[in-house]
Amino acid sequence: MSDTPKNLLSLQDVHTHVGAYHILHGVNLEVPAGQLTMLLGRNGAGKTSTLRTIMGLWQASRGEIRFDGQPITRLPTPEITQRCDIAYVPENMGIFGDLTVRENLLLAARRARSLEQMDTQRLDWLFQLFPALKKFWLYPAGKLSGGQKQMLAIARAMVEPRRLLLIDEPSKGLAPAIVLNLVEALRELKRSGGATVLLVEQNFMVAKALGDRVAVMDDGRIVHSGAMAELSADEALQQRLLGLSLAAHQ
Predict the structure, then answer these.
(1) Which domains, and CATH codes, for the chain?
(2) In what order do the strands lie in the sheet with 70-71?
(3) So what's the pLDDT on residue 108?
(4) Which of 20, 132, 165, 217 could cross-link to 41 by cystine, CB 3.0-4.6 Å?
(5) What is the DSSP string of 123-180?
(6) Residues 188/151/84/8 CA torsion (nearest 10 deg)
(7) CA separation for the pair 137, 44 (Å, rounded)
(8) How much is the pLDDT for 191?
């Protein structure tokens, strides 16, 4: 019997048009259950567009998206979130700046209408991952630093168990020390089990540290997929696919 994990999410020949622009050109992507898959590529390659298409924010014009074997290509975004238990952390974080940290997390906890109904064990786990959230529990989210806002955005996605997390460039613009904290939190998420992650990232050391699998995009297509460890060890392949070497970032 094969030990290869089942694919929780798959895209087959997915095309996306936005107005007159043909953005995705036949994306084929597999995201194995229980693993963290990195989606890499140069700026403008189509990574964010892929996440938006999966979430139904942009409609695929051709091809099929399947979640746990079921087609979701034509589902509206709220139904994808609720039915499939998918959480999306966009590049702009999507937090509510006028609300406190507590209120942001409560809004994301779909099964709770008050703080008393929230899963306190899970909250304590999030506080261990992101101590700043406990410290600034009653602060307006808009007054947090960039790194704290990113932590809040990811915590919102994790405040309830989710089958799939889509995270778009979490380390973008963050100081190196904050990036290290973020990497450690995502490692803990991996260790905790149960969640599958598709992570778009431009920081290749983050990719190397976290990725189980990797898919590389160029011009709206997947041009490489495989084990992250294999890409990390092959400088010639890194140069060809990404235009730089991971070794240069160590």
Answers:
(1) 1-85+200-250 (3.40.50.300)
(2) 21-32, 7-18, 60-67, 70-71
(3) 87
(4) 217
(5) HHHHHHH-HHHHHTTTSBGGGS-HHHHHHHHHHHHHSS--SEEEEE-TTTT--HHHHH
(6) -40
(7) 36
(8) 83
Residues in the chain with pLDDT < 70? 1-5, 194, 244-250
Tokens standing for residue 144? 């947090």
pLDDT at 190: 83
Around Cβ 160, how many Cβ atoms within 10 Å? 17
Q: What is the gyration radius of the CA atoms in the chain, in angstroms?
A: 18
Task: Kindly state the tokens that stand for 79.
Answer: 């139904």
CA distances from 212 to 30, 228, 245 (A): 13, 5, 19
Q: 177 — phi, psi (to 5°)?
A: -65, -35
pTM over 0.85: yes
Separation between Cα atoms, residue 191 and residue 235, nearest integer Å: 28
Give the pLDDT score at 1: 43
The residues pairing with 79 across neighbouring beta strands, listed in sequence order, are none
Question: What's at 194, amino acid-wise?
Answer: G
CB 237 within 8 A of CB 247: no
Give 200-212 pLDDT, tens digit per residue. Answer: 998 888 999 999 9
Hey, how many other C-beta atoms are within 10 angstroms of the C-beta on 19?
A: 6
